[in-house]
Amino acid sequence: MTESGATVTELEGGVRVVTEAVPSVRSVALGLWVKTGSRDETPAQAGVSHFLEHLLFKGTKRHSAIEIAEIFDGLGASINAATGKESTHLYARFLDTHTERAFDLLAEMLLGPTYPEIDSEREVVLEEIAMYEDEPQDRVHDVLDEAIFGEHPLGRRVLGAAEVIKSIPVPDIAAYHRSHYTSSNIVVAAAGNLEHDAVVELAGRHVQPPRASADGAGGEAPQAQARVGFHRKETEQYHVTLGGPGLSRGDDSRYALAILDAVFGGSSSSRLFREIREKRGLAYAVGSYTQQFVDGGLIGLYVGTREDNIEEACEIIGRELGSIHSDGISADELVRAKEHVKGRMVLSSESTAARMSRIGKAVLFGTELLTLDDMIARVDAVETDDVSALAEELYAPEGLAAAAIAPSEERFRRALAPINESLAAAPA
Predict the structure, then answer these.
(1) Number of H helices, E strands in the chain
(2) Over the chain, what is the mean pLDDT?
(3) Partner of 185 for a Cys bridge, out of 35, 215, 268, 316, CB 3.0 to 4.6 A?
(4) Cβ distance 6 to 18 under 8 Å?
(5) What is d(CA 145, CA 412) in angstroms, rounded to the nearest whole number?
(6) Dihedrals φ, ψ of 142, to 5°?
């Protein structure tokens, strides 16, 4: 990485290219980012973004799925893809000497899928959905999203609905691809031992999608509400989440939020981890997290605990929420959390894949492209009052939704009383 940061070029058709040179390595991390995800789907399309991501690997006019795998293996490369609520991306890491060959094939996969073997891949995705249903520690976060965002697309899970995956025809998938994988929705991001102009030349040659104005991650802004979500399942633990509105991707307060999250539940010295796990042994997994979207966000927390411990765990959560909401954080907590956040930034910067992801998302969503020094300076500039004001705004217990996967909804609701009495009393 040069100290001046990333370099951006917009091609004539609207595709943007962003790179960050890291001369000290012998590899390149390349990502092809598309501004489309589950948020851009209708209910009848629920899961098509993620299904399409799978189908990108199944074959093109020139190569079968097996040949694609063999080529990347022959390059010594690692390749994968991911779908989120507002983006999809295809990415690979490889030796710098293989940049042109890898770029050529990734671009062909992204823009020229031929949808062979679609029925077998339907079964693969259906198995993924079934596997996810059996993982309450993961599934409960989707239950929370629905409780917070309701019928808004952000309330739907990325994996989508099994009934859609079973039946959606190839022409509908192809139409979704044509309408969303367009020039102004695509960003080429690369980090590693590279030259920006060479990547731009490759992008101009290989990435030629249909030209259209950006339409991804759109729609109405979400309106969060404090509701209860519950999914009954015979589990050994009560899997409980709480959450509410957060900050958008470009909000200047996101650095203060990172510090607040580290203090509350996002680190091993956080309040939730210390009080629930270390002092009382009520849970193995406990913590907090944040998510950012183009026009809003989410703050959340999770705890998994046995039935006999659910009331005590929720009582502690209620107490800690009340404390951080009314009192903010201490000077010592601020110092420790700042170092934690900065340390994570620096460690991440040593990964070319993480750098590629950071600059790719920044250009895709129109947020600032900052150097590592810039980000550290933003963290250092946060004051205790900034964090306290954010805690007062976002961590008010009465503004939080709750969700659980557990055997008894009645017991779950009773346990919520120390956190939010109105949720505990709300009709099932």
Answers:
(1) 17, 11
(2) 95
(3) 35
(4) yes
(5) 18
(6) -70, -35
